[in-house]
Amino acid sequence: MSQTQRLLLIAPSAMTRTPAFDRAAMLARAMQLPLHIVAFDYLQALAVAGLFAPEQIALARDGYLQTHRQWLAEQAELMKKHGVDATSEVVWVQHPYEEILHFVNEMSLALIIKDAHEESALKRVFFTPLDWQLLRDCPVPVHLVTNALNPRPRNVLAIVDVLRSEDQDLVFNDQIIDAATKLAELCEARIELVHVYDWTAVYAQDMGVGALPLATGIYEALGVAQHEAFAALAERHGVPTECRHFIEGAPLSSICKFAEDHHTDVIVMGTVQHTGLNKLLGTTAEQLLHRAPCSVLAIKPGRMLQGE
């Protein structure tokens, strides 16, 4: 197994240079790590036709793969001219996630980079089933890129949840901020730190066990406690006061509006797999991944964004 850390760019099957190419090249230079580019090809029509004319279809498939390999190699050569140690390959496979896990097991990957698709009219991101598999299950940090506005991000937003109670969850907040700080330093970008206090959700939960309106003061006290915990977390990581944002409101809409108002390029957030449920950490995280107005960097517990 190779111990040399590298970045993995998952290129689209179409021979098109997408925003993820520029983001991957920029990060590879900034992190001083080699970049491996892989594209996964599989044409169902060719696979079915191969059942009836295997030799002819095999030739057609090989010719298509060779064309794609040559195109991808040209993209790698362009990156090399700009100081990136880039390699490439094309793999014929129907289910790419299993092949990606092979790369994870065989390479020391610091980060996986892939395009997501932004529907500008709706200001939301569209994720493919492969994207969701990577976000939910892949042990390596995953960066999904939506647009080419800023190949080098200028504004990075880290989202934390100070309601985390277990020790390992509190450490996860540290990992999220560390990853966002690392990305911001690499890109010479501004970092913002956000926690959203949704007191209405807390109140609604308590109403189910007979809370009284007089208990409003309890929720105010909880808000003060969360604010203090957030301030301590930000202070521990050296986040400037003007870059700390404690927001009261609905988490999803508050985060999306903040990202839009502050022209955020990348949202750094944490995701984990719920055992037996195949869900991301909390409904807010899952919904945010549906509606994020920008690129996303998803961090898993215990995994840091590496690089020099």
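Second entry:
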Amino acid sequence: MSTQANKQSALKKITRGLTVGSVITGSTFLHGPPVLALGLTKLFKKSRKVDQTNIQITNSWLNVNNWLIDHVLPHLEWDISIDEQLDLSMQGRYLMTCNHQSWVDTTVNQYFGLTRMPLTRFFTKWELIFIPFVGQAFKILGFPMMKRHTKAQIEKNPELKTRDMIEARKACEQLLSQPFTLLNYLEGTRFTQEKHDQQASPYQHLLKPKAGGLALALNILGDKIDALVDMTIVYPDGSPGYGDFWLGDVSKIAVNLRKIDIPDWVLGGNYEDDEEYRKRFQAWVDQLWLEKDQLIGQMKAKYAVSSS
């Protein structure tokens, strides 16, 4: 590529970055204050109408982001595959699992789900509550916010474990008043080869799954959901950073959604206190993860062949 072409490419990237940054910042300052203001009213009175309005405002914010993806990242190609057994609806109630590689994963989920599924919430750290706008919005919109304690902290104060379970149960139950998609990144952290090696993960493309959060959600919501959905995301060009995505350095994203059948024995079990149930549940999740690992391998092989 010539020097002139390099300069033009760099200029386009700078222009794209400034456009995306300006629009997202402006959109956040436009949509954020109404969500926070309406959220404050819930301190005095619970209101389904307020919740619905906040979701509409949030979806408007997401719609701006999706518009940027469609119009500012014109060379991005999507390959989306949906299980025929999966009948998605904006009025549905879904639990969703997903592999986790990048901050872009959440943007992919939002892009896919905006017109197909209810607003996606996910388990997040309580510490995010202190991030201006973002943390408060998570709380107001009903994201289950978890205080993570180490084994040493729980051993020193066993009450912490019970308190966390109560808070998590309350957050999940609050979702039942409306359609929802509750996302759980079972790996608990973003995939890197270093983490994979440290874990000695038995999977080629995944970290070991942490089943406790899914077990809790199924215990509380299992008989009230329409489907357990597994989303698999593959970046044929390699896992991108958030900046890489918005600067247009990602050419293709592949998404696969499949419906997971929930065995009858899963519902109503006690993951925390029943060791036999816990082992059986973990084995079930391990099998789902093995199938997912094989699926990722097939997807990557497909794109490797198509690009050769």
